[in-house]
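Input.
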Amino acid sequence: MRKPFIAGNWKMNTNISEAVALVSEMFDDLNCIESVDRVICPPFISLQPIKEIIWGTSIELGAQNMYCKAKGAFTGEISPVMLKSLCKYVIIGHSERRQYFFETDLVVNEKVKSALAAGLLPILCIGETLEENEAGKTSDVLSRQVKAGLQDISAEKEFVLAYEPIWAIGTGKAATGQKASQTIGFIRDNLAAIWGNENAESVRILYGGSVSGSNIAEFIKEPQIDGALVGGASLKAKDFIDIVRQTAALKQP
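Output.
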């Protein structure tokens, strides 16, 4: 059975003191729920202070982005080598990176390869826009993103996939659990076509997009969905703890 996985993407929110306060508020409760992988993805500036708080626990840290080069004259960028000493995971290909910073499938693939080479575990995000969804292009978009994002990546590499329909991110318009499960099943079929059924079944695939404590059960009860990439609700300690608790209860081994 794939271990459930809940990650909180704080995006561009919280300064250092606010980040420390938020993690401190949720620490005791999160630390007790070891049947779920719990990952916090704060802004870069807070990785080190949060690492000091969660040191020695099973709570993990993730970065929200990275550049594909190890070092060099790339002003303002953060490399995977820099992140390796701070966190275990890194979000790659988030729709906001694709939309606002014009990251192509090729760029995403280069980042995935660089993260793996540095020993980081990518959380690779894929998803279609509202226009693509309404035009019936969801399957084509997701197939392209999976194949391109994982180009030249071997089946032995560990990573997490996150399906985030762009039309559901921050809008309150979450997909239904049944529809999300069907789509994630399609994504897993694409992985199977690349690596075979056994390898595809081992990959954890999350749902993301307006996930909250009030709807997490709808997604987690679906066998194809292994967890969630949580946005706004991860900025509220009680909400994030509630999401993790419900996941643990519904995904008992």
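Strands lie at 5-9, 37-41, 60-63, 89-92, 121-126, 160-163, 204-208, 227-230.
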